[in-house]
Amino acid sequence: MRLLHIIPILFFTLAWGTGFSQVTADISEVDFGEINRSTDRVIDITLTNSDDQPAFLLRYGFPPEYLVIMSDKTIPPGGTATLRVKFNPQLKGSVKDPVDLWFSNMDKPVHFVFEANVLYIDHSDNPACPSFNERPANCCNDEPALVEVFDRSNGKPISGARVRIIQQGTLQQTMIMDRQGGHELDAPIAYYYLIADAREYFPSDTAMYINRRNNHIRLLLDPAPRTTEVETLAVQEPEQPEAPDDVMEEVTIRIEKDDQPTTDPNPPPLPLNEDANLPESRYSRNNVVILVDVSQSMNQGGKMDLLKASVLGLSDVIRDVDNVSLITYASQSNVVIEKATGREREALQKSTRELQAGGMTAGAKGFKAAFELAMTHFIEGGNNQVIVATDGAFRAADQAKIDKLVRKYRKKGVTTSVIGIKSTSGASKILDSIAREGEGSFIYMEDFDASQQQLVEEIKSRSFKIK
After folding, report:
1. pTM, entire model
2. Nearest alpha-carbon partner for 435 in 423, 417, 459
3. Is the pLDDT of residue 68 over 60?
4. Which domains does the chain carry?
C-alpha cells in the first residue's frame, strides 16, 4: 500500500545553531497501548522553541507506517507548533520506533519513542492524518451508532435503562433505552465515555472511540442483590412491679453552662455581595496547584473524563481571590495554566477540556514543579495546596523522592492531597500514605456524579475558617 508523507523532507542552507535543546516537546515517549478495532491512533505533540531565532524543520525520521503533519513548519522564537502523528500499523505485534526531528537551530535532534502492541489491522481503512481544520472539535459528520443495555446474568434487554454520553468531562446527552434495550445515537466521530444505569442494577461504564468501524455499543449490567423484608416479631416486655404510692424521690437536675452547644445551629446570613459557594467570611483564600497524570493509562476507562469533570466543577466556584494552576506530568512536567482566578474561569475550563493523555509516568518531576509553583504564589494565612490526580502508584525510583518533597513542602505550609482515579487497592494504599505525609486527603474517584463535587468539597474542607 502506498503511503503519502504529508510533510516533505526540507532542505535548508542554514547555519547550524550551537544549542542542545532550543526545541523541546511536551511528550517524548508515546505509547498507543493495545491497538484494536476501536483505538484512536492519533496523537498531538506540542513543540516549543525557546531560542531567540526561528526554528525550521529540516528533516524527520518517521517510518512509513506514520503519517505526520505540522501546524507550522517554522516555529517562531518563543512560539509553539503542533506535531500531529497518525499511526497506521501494517503488522501485528509489539512496536517500538525511535524517531528524530531535526531543526535548523539545533545540533542535536528532538528524540521520540513510539510504542504500541498491535492486535488488529484493517488494511482497507488507513485514512490520512486528520488535518487541523478537522480535529478535534466538531470535526466529523455524525456517525449513527446503536447503544444497547442488557442484563449480564440472563442476556435480556433492560427497558428504561439510562445511558449518559460524556465527552471531555461534560455531559453531552442522556438516552433512555426502548423496550428492546436499545437506542440510536447520532454523534460526531470521537472518543466518548458512556455510563449506563438502571433500577435494581449496578451501574457500568466504558470509554471508546465511536466511528464507522465501532458503532455498536453493548453495555452489560449486573443485578443488584434485592433486599428482603424481615418480619418483626412483637416481644412482650416483662411486667415491672409498681412502686408504692407513698414513695417519693426528689430528683435535682443541674444544667452546666458548658453543656450548651458551642456552635450556632442557625449561622447569621452572609454579608451582601459574598459568594454563596465559598463566602470569604467563612473560607480562606485558596492557592491550589492541580498536578494531573497524563500518562497513557489515564486514557482508559473514562479516567480523564472523571478528572476533567472534577476540575470543571471546581472552576465553577473559584473566586477572584483564589488561584488555581494546572500542571500535567507524563514523561515531563508542563504548566498548562498558571494562577487562574474566577475571572479566568473560561480559560481554566478550556485548558481542562483540552488535556490529553500519552507518555510514561515520571512523577517526581511533576511533584517538584507543582510545589515550586505553589510556593511562587504562596498566600500567607490561606490554603496552599497541591492536589495530585493519578490512577496508580509511582515508579519505585520516584517514590522516595516524592516522599521527601512532600515532607519538605509540608513544613513550608503546602499540604498535599491525592486523587486516586479508579486506582487499585494496592495503589490506593500508597497514594493514601502520600496524602497522610502531606497532611492532606486521599480521594478515591470512580463515579461521574460524585466527581463533579469531590474537588469542591476538598477545597472547602481545607480552606474553612475555624473560629
Report:
1. 0.63
2. 417
3. yes
4. 23-118 (2.60.40.10), 142-221 (2.60.40.10), 286-463 (3.40.50.410)
